[in-house]
Amino acid sequence: MENLSLLNNIKEEYQKNRSIFIPGHIIRKIILSLKVDPADFTKLESISNHLISDPTLPFRKTKTGRFCFNFKNSTIERIEFQPFVLSAEEDFVRHDSGKTRCFRGIGDDLQLNTVFQALMMIKAYLVSDVTVAPRPKLNQDSHQSLCTVFNLRTVTTPILLGEPSLEGVHSDGADHTMTIFLGSKNMSSNSAKTFVHDMKQKNGLNHNEIDRSYVLKEIQHKKFLDTLLFVDHERKHSLTPIFAQDKTKEATRDMLIMLTRKPVEDGHISFQYDSFLPHREIPLTFNMIKQ
């Protein structure tokens, strides 16, 4: 593919620094070299209009999908629905920690979008063969990884504050986390600042409580496809809330979140929900970028 050297430079920086922010115009340049349908960029910007209410957060709309990164045969495959759970033991401290959550699945409108597929291909390429601090009870010898995709809209209204990380400082129980900006409306310039923290930062602290000496990076997703990638078990993260520019109107922020990890082993809280069987109703398989 064209721009493979650019992608390799990004991967080299990621391996060295354990986190990297990639501006949207760079991501777009790489995506275009993957022969996508240009019309799918516009479709992706509005995809979050079809989300539904989140099961535990009143200020969020959500859909999810589970995909298998098979690094042995270089494919990405949609796999069947499973409930989702994150625990305090995985550095996720919130009122619904350890609670089984069931999200509505993403449909063909997203999974068949060629730009979305390209984003998954880019992530698979960037994380392949990158050694990370091993999470407990993950099968480190597996050639497969689970990629859970969240399409999220965080909403602030005159009576409700939208918080992209209500849980404060946390990790997502993954090996690699990638966050991609799709767009926003009526959002103030001081909204949704992302802080990447040293692991010494205490879990659960909100943006007003964090120890700034443990902040390794501060970024903001501002433009379409702005992307942050970090090693989730070596870096914690948190965000500031969504503030409305016009406080009398609704403000929104739309994202794609891709959480990638090895399969879990017996004794992990997600063990009974870690199927890698193909999705029967809306199957999908496509190839990774050739190394």
For this entry, give a set of tags.
291 residues; alpha+beta; nine-stranded antiparallel sheet; 12 strands
What kind of sheet is the major sheet?
9 strands, antiparallel
CA-CA gap between termini:
10 Å
Q: Work out the strand percent.
A: 25-35%
Assign the structural class, choosing from mainly alpha, mainly beta, alpha/beta, alpha+beta, or little secondary structure. Answer: alpha+beta
Q: Average pLDDT value?
A: 94
pLDDT < 50 stretches: none
Spell the H/E element sequence.
HEHHEEEHHEEEEEEEE
Count up the helices.
5
Gross morphology: globular
Radius of gyration, rounded? 18 Å
Give the number of DSSP strands. 12
Helix content: 10-25%
Protein name: 2OG-Fe dioxygenase family protein
Organism: Yersinia massiliensis
